Amino acid sequence: MSDTEATQVTHRIDIEAPADAVYRVVSDVRLWPLYFPPTVRAERTRGDDSDEHIRIWAVAHGEVRTWESRRRLDPAARSVRFEQTRPADPVAAMGGRWEVRERGDKACTVVLDHHYRAVGDDPAALARIAEAVETNSVSELDHLRLAAERSGTEEDLLLDFSDTEVITGSAADVYDFLQDAAKWPDRLGHVVRLDLREKEPGLQYMEMDTRAPDGSVHTTVSGRVCFPQRQIVYKQTKLPPVLRAHNGEWLVEDAADGTVRVTARHQVLLDPEGIAALPAPPATLQAARDAVQHSLSSNSRATLARARAFAESR
């Protein structure tokens, strides 16, 4: 272990929302994929509400990375201390603390501290880590502010829906079709272009041009985490202007009757400002909800239909 002192950095933001509401998001990692753009997936692997081990998959520098951390939560102080237990190269050590400081009944300040070291104390690696910490901290705090300050309207802006296909074929063939996204431009009519990077098996970063039902083409960037033969979780980090967040998953399940049940699930947060800025915005929020669900479901159903044809022809 190097004797070099860790780099320390602090970020903070003022939020016009109650401290308890803000701490709820900070403390519950299951909410992070919805509110924090870099986070693709986050889960508690063991522990409880005071001392937990978590695993995070997140997008950084054009790739999906994963690490495990231990977190010690203090609800009374509204603070969470964290330390990575399995850092990913080039990170040798990473830790810090979230603290939510009350400013009256309806406002607070969030302080996010980090300390970190690079493998071998390499200056280039240290600069790369510093850039990621800066970018992600600023983004996370700003989106935490947005989530907390708009919590009263979230129910109207959140969509959670799914489409399912029953396939007479092999679950392995279905999963392979969904996992091998590099071939989608040749297999799916609505995918115009797709650039896929997979530096570590199962961790995919992809940029995709997709044609919507109205003929318009949108570019999205996504991180995907692939759990072989059963599930692919994804998070869009570059979104169409009408969306604030878009998470999803492909779930492949063997049914008791020998068929395969495949589900495409979407969780979406609409962006009211982005909707209002459209050249011809929908007349109502419900119309916007319907249009977004129609567009996403149309593409999901098209993908499921092609996956079915692929698996049933094998």
Distance between the termini: 53 Å
CATH third-tier fold name of the largest domain: Alpha-D-Glucose-1,6-Bisphosphate, Chain A, domain 4
Number of helices: 8
CATH architecture of the largest domain: 2-Layer Sandwich
Structurally, how many domains make up the residues? 2
Using the CA coordinates, give the radius of gyration. 21 Å
Q: What are the defining features of this structure?
A:
seven-stranded antiparallel beta sheet, 314 residues, 2 domains, Alpha-D-Glucose-1,6-Bisphosphate, Chain A, domain 4, 45% strand, alpha+beta, 14 strands
Structure description:
The protein is of the alpha+beta class and about 325 residues long. It has two domains: about 5-150, Alpha-D-Glucose-1,6-Bisphosphate, Chain A, domain 4 (2-Layer Sandwich), CATH 3.30.530.20; about 155-310, Alpha-D-Glucose-1,6-Bisphosphate, Chain A, domain 4 (2-Layer Sandwich). About 30% of the residues lie in helices and about 45% in strands. It has eight helices and 14 strands. The chain has helices at about 20-25, 30-35, 125-150, 155, 170-180, 185, 270-275, 285-310, and strands at about 5-15, 40-45, 50-60, 65-75, 80-85, 90-100, 110-120, 160-165, 190-200, 205-210, 215-225, 230-240, 245-255, 260-270. The protein has a seven-stranded antiparallel beta sheet with strand order 1-7-6-5-4-3-2. A hairpin with a 5-residue loop joins strand 10 (about 205-210) and strand 11. Helix 1 (about 20-25) crosses helix 3 (about 125-150) and helix 5 (about 170-180) packs across helix 8 (about 285-310). The protein is globular, with a radius of gyration of 21 Å.
